[in-house]
Amino acid sequence: MRTALALVVIAASWSTTAFAQAPATPASWLRGAYTNISRYIPRAAEKMPEEHYGMRPGTQAEVRTFGQLIGHLANYNYLWCSQAKGDKNPAAGQDFEKTTNKAALVKAVTEAIAYCAPVYDALTDASGQELLTITQENGRRSQSFRISLLTLNYGHNNEHYGNVVTYMRMKDIVPPSSEPR
């Protein structure tokens, strides 16, 4: 867990050095990074035509379709942000990866991202150091610093947005992060 915090601090120092800004704190850097990636995911879900939601790159069934990928992002934003917030998961019992309707998936991922926004907005360096007891997907309980859990969520979003970009490029669709400013 301390490794994740160290990576946030290193990334924050690199990003501030590159842009000659005042040094960011780990919490403020993470808030900004999450805000940035959270703009792209719902827009990508909206941009992809519904007929491509069932598309997967290749024929292997264990590779998620575009729709499953969007559902997966909704599931985990709810899971990790609810734990960082100390709330019950508002989407508990739902598995958005099983949803096939584009409108329902766009709504799910948009609402999941919106659910996370105040969790990141409230994050401070002090609150980030609070040790939380979290329940993993397999039911096991473990401990994590709040900032580590939110860094995991941000990294997960970032990683899977990269997958989303690949799916979109395969269909000759310009992803939101590559649109002209």
Question: What is the topological layout?
Answer:
Elements: H1 2-19, H2 26-47, H3 66-85, H4 102-121, H5 125-128, E1 131-135, E2 141-145, H6 146-170
Antiparallel strand pairs: 1-2
Walk me through what this model shows.
This protein is mainly alpha-helical and 181 residues long. It has one domain (25-178): Four Helix Bundle (Hemerythrin (Met), subunit A) (Up-down Bundle). It has helices spanning 2-19, 26-47, 66-85, 102-121, 125-128, 146-170, and strands at residues 131-135, 141-145. A two-stranded antiparallel ribbon has the order 1-2. β1 (131-135) and β2 form a beta hairpin.
Q: Indicate the radius of gyration in whole angstroms.
A: 17 Å
H/E series:
HHHHHEEH
- What's the number of extended β-strand segments? 2
**Sheet bearing the most strands, described?**
2 strands, antiparallel
Low-confidence stretches: none
Proper CATH architecture: Up-down Bundle
Attribute tags:
181 residues; mainly alpha; 6 helices
Summarize the entry for a quick read:
This protein has 6 helices and 2 strands; from the N terminus they run αααααββα. With 181 residues, the protein is mostly helical.
